[in-house]
Automatic annotation (TrEMBL):
Iron among keywords: yes
UniProt EC number: 4.4.1.21
Known cofactor(s): Fe cation
Organism: Deinococcus petrolearius
Role, per record: Involved in the synthesis of autoinducer 2 (AI-2) which is secreted by bacteria and is used to communicate both the cell density and the metabolic potential of the environment. The regulation of gene expression in response to changes in cell density is called quorum sensing. Catalyzes the transformation of S-ribosylhomocysteine (RHC) to homocysteine (HC) and 4,5-dihydroxy-2,3-pentadione (DPD).
Annotated cofactor note: Binds 1 Fe cation per subunit.
Keywords: Autoinducer synthesis, Iron, Lyase, Metal-binding, Quorum sensing
Protein name: S-ribosylhomocysteine lyase
Gene: luxS
Length: 155
């Protein structure tokens, strides 16, 4: 089976909340795509409820694009402790950090209907929790976001 970068990260050594450059891919035409972890919760110390991370997915999909150019994808981690984000190019980490902070502030302040929530637009439109999503955004901001370096597992 192919090696997966995130399985080489020592999840016991990181300190959430953080952003981490997980890797950079170069396409056959020479463009680069950077993948980031946007970690909200400390690994193995809790998880975001499915409805709340679903709402975070809907809100951060829009708000991150408001603050950052060329976002390819924002999607929840299966462990429910944060999100993955792919962006075109190699933006500097401080810029990613500021964009994530701004998107979390927008999320914490979001007091309108959640975008994309209907049977036509979403695959599980009943499964949302705006209050919990806002609380996770506030908690991450209060926790002090930082840039996390990759600490590889010693095998
Ligand atoms: Zn959805």
């Amino acid at each position: 089976m192919a090696n997966v970068e995130s399985f080489d990260l020592d999840h016991t050594k990181v300190q959430a909340p953080y952003i981490r450059l997980a890797g950079v891919k170069t396409t056959p035409r020479g463009d680069s795509i950077s993948k980031y972890d946007l970690r909200l919760l400390q690994p193995n110390a809790g998880a975001i409820d499915p409805a709340a991370i679903h709402t975070l997915e809907h809100l951060l999909a829009g708000y991150l694009r408001d603050h950052l150019d060329d976002v390819v994808d924002v999607s929840p981690m299966g462990c429910r402790t944060g999100m993955y984000m792919a962006v075109v190019g190699e933006p500097n980490e401080q810029g990613i950090l500021r964009a994530f902070e701004a998107a979390l502030r927008d999320t914490a302040a979001h007091d309108r209907p959640i975008p994309g929530v209907s049977e036509l637009e979403c695959g599980n439109y009943r499964d949302h929790d705006l209050d919990a999503a806002r609380q996770h955004a506030r908690d991450a901001l209060a926790g002090g976001l930082k840039v996390q370096q990759t600490i590889l597992l010693q095998r």
